């Protein structure tokens, strides 16, 4: 069993580690419709989808109708674009805000390129 100090060190190391960030799509393998979004933690988002599939629940509202029709196993997670870390460690809010802005800009580019709306996808157009 880990002592408290070791647990604290591991938690701090994890919090300071760079998580893969970027743009992803969740693709329905039955009809090829896609949901495009971005995340500050791509691995966490992939794990969320895998967990939903295992538990046969859906926390992605956009996919609800087709999830009910085709089942969770019909959806796959695909990374479209990653942001590389500028430093080994990121700590402060300014760093996170900067990465967030970069990811949001990347998302806009991918939405423009793929147009995952109406019959092509699950995204809603911005008004």
From TrEMBL:
It comes from the Bacteria. InterPro entries: GIY-YIG_endonuc_sf. This is GIY-YIG nuclease family protein. It comes from Paenibacillus qinlingensis. The lineage of its organism: Bacteria, Bacillati, Bacillota, Bacilli, Bacillales.
């Amino acid at each position: 069993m880990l002592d408290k100090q070791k647990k604290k060190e591991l938690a701090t190391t994890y919090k300071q580690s760079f998580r893969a960030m970027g743009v992803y799509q969740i693709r329905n393998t039955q009809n090829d419709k896609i949901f495009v979004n971005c995340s500050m933690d791509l691995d966490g988002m992939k794990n969320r989808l895998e967990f939903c599939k295992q538990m046969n629940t859906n926390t992605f509202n956009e996919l609800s109708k087709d999830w009910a029709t085709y089942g969770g196993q019909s959806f796959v997670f695909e990374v479209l674009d990653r942001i590389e870390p500028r430093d080994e460690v990121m700590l402060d809010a300014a760093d996170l805000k900067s990465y967030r802005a970069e990811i949001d800009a990347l998302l806009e580019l991918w939405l423009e390129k793929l147009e995952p709306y109406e019959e092509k996808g699950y995204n809603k157009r911005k008004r």
